Amino acid sequence: DAKTTQPPSMDCAEGRAANLPCNHSTISGNEYVYWYRQIHSQGPQYIIHGLKNNETNEMASLIITEDRKSSTLILPHATLRDTAVYYCIVQGGKLIFGQGTELSVKP
Amino acid sequence: DAMVIQNPRYQVTQFGKPVTLSCSQTLNHNVMYWYQQKSSQAPKLLFHYYDKDFNNEADTPDNFQSRRPNTSFCFLDIRSPGLGDTAMYLCATSRGDILDDEQYFGPGTRLTVT
Questions:
Q1: What pLDDT, in 10s, does the model give residues B38-54?
Q2: Which of A38, A94, A99 sits opposite B45 (nearest CB)?
């Protein structure tokens, strides 16, 4: 069973920041938080991952709470091409996908 | 440049007729995975190879088999496809670190069983 909880859907206006929350209250001390996304009819795409510290790359930022029980993926300037299902996964060796959040970016 | 390649992209097979899906990678990764994704569902891991070591998920039907003849290639064999095996099949690779290890996915093969 997936060890994460995400809202099933979210909307975001184009050009605005998209903040996608994820709860992972049972995370173990050595498990990373991973984010992937899946654009319709394509394979999932890795976005970012982290253990304790906040992380940033060219795609997104990942904010992990101090107790590590939740995290937020931030897409700073969402575009229409960011419309996808976003999966938050706690990885302890293999990916177990939950249902994810369907993000719709609207003009 | 394509890193994880899946062939064919679309496959139609008849009920009970064996089918093989192909995956190749140019990343020289140790691990190759196969996932099944049915319509409107999340991907579900079927099995993976760490080098030549095969690891099957407990609930993967016996109908599904896999082969990895070398580092670059991995095959998914469905011996007697049923209508319920209609799905997208995704191949992925990773370096093989236990915890700090992102996966790279191919575009998938959409299989239809008629």
A1: 999 999 999 999 999 99
A2: A94
